[in-house]
């Protein structure tokens, strides 16, 4: 199966544990995959407040929390739900084709 | 439907920011004016003692949002404007030099002010406090020329300034009257871990000691401790706590007692007047007592809670208070209620340090602190939120998965 245009293959869907946060890189850009209730989300892997790896963070109620200062970002939209971050987290589109998770190279706009 | 009531937010910290955002998000479409004595829009105050002081971030980079953002929200900014009087009956503020600013709704978010030391010599140049961006700019300037820095007070601000000054290569001495720094908020064991981290980074600690006076001609040259010890220094930073900024409201008709008293919806006893952030002493419905919290996260959230009440959608404000402190490469996080507690349970490695501490009162987890163990913060916080009772031996066992405890934890009576 061909990779959808503008996407990169990241991981097999089955290899991501439910509730898991999996780091990956696209062109040296750190990102994360999150699987929650069977859905897969792709977001930037670095907090927009200060440098911190969100792969070390925590999930609660569809929000990913930064491990260092508690900034919260909505998994679906990247919207800030808890300060100190005030800039949204870039989010990426996800397609699952034949059991493989593909993530868009470019962040979703607005 | 347009809300015609003009709302004034008095203050320019993160409580004001949280309120400004949340007022519009909650649908309040009346006129909103933000009045701040500081000449800048709200900024990330916690960065002042750390990234800003160390030169890693500029003033512009720590703004929570650029000035245009408030324009987009339709919020009028009155920056660098001091309020000199308030009349809650006539519902107006007096701004320097005499302008009267009417309001229908007032949110008091004036924050807190550093306690000034009135000891001999503390009026000489070279003595700094750290609260505002202007304070931090002046301190950063002084720090660039200083060689020997004396920090008076080893609370969070003092400890962070000491760490930043050491990181910049300065000689640093810290004086604190407590035998163990931060023993009040964190207990002696955790305070001791932090003291050891500072020692290891080359900070000279003078604990259980007080400064008697400062000496110097054109500027500070030495400090004399009550013990008689003399410490040479060319810069003194004082961090001995803050007081709620209530001066404007003395005699205004508001109840003032360790801050402005408000209920669980951030409302004072005067209709249409609210308070949030460091200045607010509020009734916390989940724990059944009053709290006044001097941390960023509370200010942001309480400002937003007040805004929702103003917009006609009050919800009880009952958070688990949270703060962090970064010193050197150490990350400390705290989630929970302030003491008292009767038991502290530690897990991890104190020497590294990599430690999580649980603070229990009558078996209930009241607070959790992580030092370089961020992954245990939120599971620990959930225990606090659930008012959980957990066997201390289970908490102390590093093989216990805190996440697994969160669900089955029994509720406190």
How would the blueprint of this fold be written?
The complex is a heterodimer of chains A (110) and B (413).
Chain A: E1 7-12, E2 21-26, E3 29-36, E4 39-44, E5 58-60, E6 63-65, E7 72-74, E8 80-82, E9 91-97, E10 100-107
Antiparallel strand pairs in A: 1-10, 2-3, 3-4, 4-9, 5-6, 6-7, 7-8, 9-10
Chain B: E1 7-10, H1 14-25, E2 32-36, H2 67-72, E3 75-79, E4 83-87, E5 92-95, E6 99-102, E7 105-108, E8 112-114, E9 127-129, H3 133-145, E10 148-152, H4 156-167, E11 171-176, H5 183-200, E12 204-207, E13 211-215, E14 222-225, E15 230-232, E16 235-238, E17 242-244, E18 260-262, E19 273-275, E20 280-284, E21 289-291, H6 296-310, E22 322-327, E23 330-336, E24 343-349, E25 354-361, E26 364-371, H7 377-385, E27 388-389, H8 392-396, H9 402-406, E28 410-411
Parallel strand pairs in B: 1-2, 1-7, 2-3, 7-19, 9-16, 10-11, 10-16, 11-12, 18-20
Antiparallel strand pairs in B: 4-5, 5-6, 8-17, 13-14, 14-15, 20-21, 22-23, 23-26, 24-25, 25-26, 27-28
Helix pairs in contact in B: 1-6
Summary?
The complex is a heterodimer of chains A (110) and B (413). Chain A is an all-beta fold. Chain A is built from no helices and ten strands.
CATH architecture heading of the largest domain in chain B: 3-Layer(bba) Sandwich
Low-confidence stretches of chain B: 408-413
What portion of residues of chain B belong to β-strands?
25-35%
CATH class call of chain A: Mainly Beta
Q: In angstroms, what is the radius of gyration of chain B?
A: 22 Å
Give the count of structural domains of chain B: 3
Main sheet specs of chain A: 6 strands, antiparallel
CATH superfamily of chain A: Rieske [2Fe-2S] iron-sulphur domain
Strand order of the largest sheet of chain A: 1-10-9-4-3-2
What CATH calls the topology of the largest domain in chain B is: FAD/NAD(P)-binding domain
> Looking at the structure, what is the overall shape of chain A?
globular
Residue runs with pLDDT of under 50 for 5 or more positions of chain A: none
Beta-strand share of residues of chain A: over 45%
Distance between the termini of chain B: 45 Å
Relative helix content of chain B: 10-25%
Order of helices and strands of chain A: EEEEEEEEEE
CATH class of the largest domain in chain B: Alpha Beta
Indicate the radius of gyration of chain A in whole angstroms: 13 Å
């Amino acid at each position: 199966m061909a990779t959808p245009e503008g996407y990169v293959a990241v991981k097999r869907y089955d290899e991501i544990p439910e509730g898991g946060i999996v780091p990956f890189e696209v062109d040296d850009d750190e990102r994360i995959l999150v699987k929650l209730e069977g859905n897969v989300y792709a977001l930037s892997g670095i907090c927009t407040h200060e440098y911190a790896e969100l792969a070390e963070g925590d999930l609660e109620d569809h929000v990913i929390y930064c491990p260092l200062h508690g900034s919260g970002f909505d998994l679906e939209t990247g919207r800030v739900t808890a300060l100190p971050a005030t800039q949204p987290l870039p989010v990426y589109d996800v397609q699952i084709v034949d059991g493989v998770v593909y993530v868009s190279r470019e962040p979703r706009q607005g | 439907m347009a809300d015609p009531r003009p709302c004034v937010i008095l203050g320019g910290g993160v409580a004001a920011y949280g309120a400004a955002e949340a007022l519009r998000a909650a649908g309040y479409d009346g006129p909103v004016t933000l009045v701040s004595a500081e000449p800048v829009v709200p900024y990330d105050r916690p960065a002042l003692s750390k990234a800003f002081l160390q030169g890693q971030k500029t003033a512009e980079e720590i703004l929570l949002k650029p000035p245009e953002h408030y324009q987009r929200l339709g919020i009028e900014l009155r920056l660098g404007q001091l309020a000199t009087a308030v009349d809650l009956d006539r519902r107006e503020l007096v701004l320097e030099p005499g302008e009267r600013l009417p309001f229908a709704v007032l949110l008091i978010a004036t924050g807190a002010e550093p306690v000034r030391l009135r000891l001999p010599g503390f009026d000489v140049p070279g003595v700094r406090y750290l609260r505002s961006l202007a304070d931090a700019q002046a301190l950063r300037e002084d720090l660039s020329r200083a060689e020997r820095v004396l920090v008076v007070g080893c609370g969070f601000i003092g400890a962070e300034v000491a760490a930043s000054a050491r990181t910049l290569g300065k000689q640093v001495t810290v004086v604190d009257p407590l035998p163990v720094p931060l023993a009040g908020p964190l207990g002696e064991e955790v305070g001791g871990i932090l003291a050891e981290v500072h020692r290891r980074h080359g900070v000279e600690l003078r604990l259980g000691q007080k400064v008697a006076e400062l000496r110097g001609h054109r500027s500070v040259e030495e400090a004399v401790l009550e013990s008689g010890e003399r410490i040479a220094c060319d810069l003194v930073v004082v961090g001995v706590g803050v007081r709620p900024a209530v001066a404007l409201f003395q005699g205004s008709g508001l109840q003032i007692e360790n801050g402005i008293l408000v209920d669980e919806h951030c409302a004072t006893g005067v209709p249409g007047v609210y308070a949030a952030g460091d200045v607010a002493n509020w009734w916390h419905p989940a724990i059944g007592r009053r709290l006044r919290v001097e941390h960023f996260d509370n200010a942001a959230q309480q400002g937003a809670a007040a805004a929702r009440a103003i917009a006609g959608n009050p919800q009880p404000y009952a958070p688990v208070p949270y703060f962090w402190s970064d010193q050197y490469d150490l990350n400390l996080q705290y989630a929970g209620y302030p003491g008292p507690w009767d038991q502290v349970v530690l897990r991890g490695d104190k020497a590294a340090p990599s430690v999580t501490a649980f603070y229990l009162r009558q078996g209930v987890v009241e607070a959790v602190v992580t030092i370089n163990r961020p992954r245990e913060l939120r599971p620990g916080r959930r225990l606090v939120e659930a008012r959980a009772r957990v066997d201390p031996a289970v908490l102390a066992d590093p093989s216990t998965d805190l996440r697994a405890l969160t669900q089955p934890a029994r509720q406190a009576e």
